Amino acid sequence: MASTPPEPTRVIGIDPGLNITGYGVVTARGSDVKLVEAGVVRLPPSKGDNLPARLESLFHELQEIMEEFSPQAMCLEEVYSHADYPRTAILMGHARGVICLAAKLQGIPVLSFSAKRVKQSVTGNGNASKSQVQRAVQNYFSLISVPHPADVADALAVALCYVNAQRYAKR
Question: Which of 24, 92, 97, 105 supports an S-S bond with 155, CB 3.0-4.6 Å?
Answer without folding.
Answer: 24
